[in-house]
Amino acid sequence: xxxxxxxxxxxxxxxxxxxxxxxxxxxxxxxxxxxxxxxxxxxxxxxxxxxxxxxxxxxxxxxxxxxxxxxxxxxxxxxxxxxxxxxxxxxxxxxxxxxxxxxxxxxxxxxxxxxxxxxxxxxxxxxxxxxxxxxxxxxxxxxxxxxxxxxxxxxxxxxxxxxxxxxxxxxxxxxxxxxxxxxxxxxxxxxxxxxxxxxxxxxxxxxxxxxxxxxxxxxxxxxxxxxxxxxxxxxxxxxxxxxxxxxxxxxxxxxxxxxxxxxxxxxxxxxxxxxxxxxxxxxxxxxxxxxxxxxxxx
Length: 298
Description:
By secondary structure, the protein is α/β, with parallel strands linked by helices. Helix content is 41%, strand content 14%. The chain has a single domain, classed as TIM Barrel, CATH 3.20.20.100. It starts with 11 loop residues before the first strand and ends with a helix.
């Protein structure tokens, strides 16, 4: 099947390397390691999710692995993504540690979490991860179009995915169009604006017309822009609600109203600023916790 094709069941897209990525996943940013994370993943799998998104910087890979094992769902039916901590040196060594924490032999997707030391610094190690079978597919996150192009030009394996902040207020259609043209599937995080857009007047008006919740409208907007979505929740009812997005369609009018919320002027950049506070804080927090972990081992 050709790149970008939706599978017959309407629940996944074909990546440029031939693997299939489910359109809906559970995001786990800021979900603490332990029962809260285990329960969220377990509920998601019970409710039919087959895509779980974690990262080395999230420090919850152990809980993802525990929930997957406890679920009884066969490993090859669940698409697991983790991400290389951008400040670290060796993607291979870090992938091996992720697999140990997850209790898995491979991950389905391994992403460079953010640009650090230049867009191509980590890419040879990422390619090596795929060659070694540690990851079936590799990609990037928080990369603008110039950074994506740099990786494609420098590498021998092109990234299959670019995971970035995408929602009606952060449409970035030049970045989306550029990724598609280069065979890179765009994936949306913060598709609900970390909850901030659920009360937006335009979103609530469209939700009323569609007889759906604001969250479902925001996620459906992503699907109709050909995006993979990974909404985060630790509440079973919200996880269930977020999955009910495949049985309705937003009208052209609805989509146009939501598109008009864009505040990025259709940029081809992953951020409006060079380095957002959220990632800077996440990186600093991750460094501190990694150091604590190293100290405890020492």
